Amino acid sequence: MTVPALSITRRLRNTPFTDHVNIAGVKSYTVYNRMLLPTSFNSMEEDYFHLKKHVQVWDVSCQRQVSVKGPDAAALMQRLTPRNLTNMVVGQCYYTPIVNDQGGMLNDPVTLKLAEDHYWISIADGDLLLWVKALAIGFGLIVSIEEPEVFPLAIQGPKASELMERVFGPEIQTIRFFRFQEFTFEGQKLIISRSGFSKQGGFEIYLNRSDLAAPLWNTLFKAGEDLQVRAGCPNLIERVESGLLSYGNDMTSENTPLECGLGRFCKIESDTNCIGNEALQKEAKAGTKCQIRSIAIEGDPLFPCDDKWPLFDGENHVGDVTSAVWSPDFETNVALGMVNKSHWENGTSLVVQTPQGIRKAIVYEKCFADRQ
Amino acid sequence: MTVPALSITRRLRNTPFTDHVNIAGVKSYTVYNRMLLPTSFNSMEEDYFHLKKHVQVWDVSCQRQVSVKGPDAAALMQRLTPRNLTNMVVGQCYYTPIVNDQGGMLNDPVTLKLAEDHYWISIADGDLLLWVKALAIGFGLIVSIEEPEVFPLAIQGPKASELMERVFGPEIQTIRFFRFQEFTFEGQKLIISRSGFSKQGGFEIYLNRSDLAAPLWNTLFKAGEDLQVRAGCPNLIERVESGLLSYGNDMTSENTPLECGLGRFCKIESDTNCIGNEALQKEAKAGTKCQIRSIAIEGDPLFPCDDKWPLFDGENHVGDVTSAVWSPDFETNVALGMVNKSHWENGTSLVVQTPQGIRKAIVYEKCFADRQ
Both A270 and A231 in a single domain? Predict the structure, then answer.
């Protein structure tokens, strides 16, 4: 399987860290929100071992912010998501499934509450800005919707805490999981949250001045030299082992949050203003037809999953694998996929049709990392 | 300048033609509407010479359709665009700038009127589906908004007409420019328009059954063997020479249609229901500050334009180059960029700051192809 080249144009946006990422030896990119997102440096496996042991600096500028600000900000936010935002306090990060009128997933961002009338939706891949802005216009809400110049940099790995303390002081340890606080870097106030797209622990720095990208990058690398700090990126192996879903891969607008195992983030039992609430109530009543599961696929390492791989029980098509990769630690291909209710029980044995042939597949309820 | 690799995942969607494109020897891709779009086969220059002389088959499935259907379809369409749609008839294609409430460009699609209550918006890069759907919900319009399974295949080049006649019969010659008609292929009705993202002439086939991708591809290649038919793609050199704008490159939501030289498509003199009309009226009254121009950049061939390259008159920043490439036919670097009113006159001499140093640049009112 040959790896294609990516043509560079202005449309696929650079980030303020791109020069540093290139110098650090990025091997491949993906495109995410029309912006460059690195996908490997040394190799996916080396990056993976390093991430689980040390600390990495990730350019995740592509997690664009949709800023929702104004008197109707809270009301609009509650129309976007089935999650109950009533008790969300300033300084908190919420994982907020965003759904359309059919209950289909449009995005699975983390939302930061900056003030009573101001939120940042830190988005997965998809122009949520257009959705939010058009709803505000259509409903006639008093709210301003913008994509601010904010470029998140994630610090991930078991030594992230140590590195961040060296740069931002011991105060960094007071940030609880999925909370954020304001810190100062070179005189500029910026937000730091304890969060990130790995299970190894870490922080996200919401850089809000692109001219500080170089000083921030260099300060982190200098401070972390003896911690073996490296440039990194969300790692496919670690992500699938950890059961972290990727919008566009493991779910699309064809899937509801209930199918994605996000029922605990949905206040569907009562009437809310969420656009998709009626559809989700119907689904909850009728019963969800399929759900995301972790799946082990036997045999040799597989090529990347570039399309749905159908799961079969005999001749019955009972689900689809949507992400798959060889895990050195688990010594099997780890995968994620949607599995029908009839076959989603822990330990169910199926077969999956891959481009490399038919393989045996075992369905698991818990992700690989949680079954250790 | 090293060319990065593109990581393949399900999120960056394949098309029904991807296998054929790979076998045809695609060298590089871009990502467009979260879908693979080829950018070169032999080399950009060889592809360019071939396109200007023969006929090519382009997989432009990434031109996703936003289907707008229902009693309020026409009313919603007129809210989306400043272009007057009153006289648009079924069977017609309109180039329709889509703007937000500030008059900023959200997309520059071609819209097909399929029926009095049914339109397809054939979009450039950007999730316009979300914008249109959210407006429909917010305004409470009776209209259904979907992304149908339609995969456009463009047949472009001076021999396109001959090839299409061989496959679809002499009736194909009756389609006028920017019109479409229904044809039958292997028993399936599909739409063919006389249009495409080149100045070499040609057609777009809106394939609506993915299982017909292989028969359609193979039929075209067999019929065009003696015409030297090849797999191709929108060609950067030919596009810039022809002055064809690329959304995300030459314009973004920061630009209005007036700045993009699309004033003739805007009915701004009178009140329409277009969301951006008020903003555009203000701009028309005050005068447009900058406008797209063709620009010749002297010196050796330039690397791809991955960011704005500032244009200067002495120390004054008077515009930005947004696309640039070496043209073998014009023996200069051809470019597109926004130039301030003070400097947009034909023949104005400026300098541009490129990653390869300061170069002399000449501003032109007409595109290179039209100045021949």
Answer: no
CA distances to A221, B17, B155, B162, B219 from B225, rounded to whole Å, are 57, 19, 14, 12, 10
**CATH, residue A73:** 3.30.70.1400
CATH code where residue A55 lies:
3.30.1360.120
A39 within a domain of the structure (yes/no) = yes
Q: Which of B197, B214, B239 is the last residue of a domain?
A: B239
Closest chain A residue to B307, measured at CA: A10
- Assess if residue B216 is contained within a domain: yes
Q: Cβ–Cβ contacts within 10 Å for residue B241, how many?
A: 25
Best probe of the A interface among B1, B6, B10, by most A CBs < 10 A, is B10
Rg (CA), chain A: 21
Whether residue A31 lies inside any domain: the answer is: yes
ipTM of this complex > 0.85? yes
Amino acid occupying residue A352: V
Q: Which of A206, A239, A272 marks a domain boundary? A: A239
What pLDDT digit, counting tens, does each position of A208-251 carry? 999 999 999 999 999 999 999 999 999 999 999 999 999 999 99
Chain A residues in contact with B27 by the CB 8 A cut-off are: 4-5
Instruction: Indicate which CATH number applies to the domain containing B343.
Output: 2.40.30.110
Pairing of strands A56-59, A230-232: parallel
Q: Is A248 touching B (CB cutoff 8 A)?
A: yes
Of A1, A9, A40, A245, which to mutate for an interface test with B (greatest number of B Cβ within 10 Å)?
A: A9
Of B26, B137, B249, the CB nearest to A9: B249
Domain shared by B194 and B299, yes or no: no
Same domain, yes or no: A165 and A186 = yes
Compute the nearest-CA separation of A167 from chain B (Å).
31
**Parent domain of A89:** 65-147+256-287
Tell me: do B212 and B355 sit in the same domain.
no
SS3 category, B340: strand
How is residue B371 annotated by DSSP? G
Q: What is the nearest CA distance from A302 to chain B, expressed in angstroms?
A: 13
Scan residues 267-306 of A and list those with Cβ closer than 8 Å to B: 275, 304-306
Residue A361 maps to a domain? yes
Whether A45 and A165 share a structural domain = yes
pLDDT in tens, chain B (372 residues): 567 899 999 999 999 999 999 999 999 999 999 999 999 999 999 999 999 999 999 999 999 999 999 999 999 999 999 999 999 999 999 999 999 999 999 999 999 999 999 999 999 999 999 999 999 999 999 999 999 999 999 999 999 999 999 999 999 999 999 999 999 999 999 999 999 999 999 999 999 999 999 999 999 999 999 999 999 999 999 999 999 999 999 999 999 999 999 999 998 777 678 999 999 999 999 999 999 999 999 999 999 999 999 999 999 999 999 999 999 999 999 999 999 999 999 999 999 999 999 999 999 999 999 986
Tally of domains in chain B:
2
* Cα–Cα distance, A333 to A311 (Å, whole number): 15
Query: Per the CB < 8 Å rule, is B8 touching A8?
Result: no
Query: How far is Cα A1 from Cα A316, in angstroms, rounded to an integer?
Result: 29
- Who's near A206: CB < 8 A, 6+ residues apart? A65, A120, A150, A151, A152, A180, A190, A191, A192, A193
The full DSSP string for A129-149 is HHHHHHHHHHHT---EEE--S
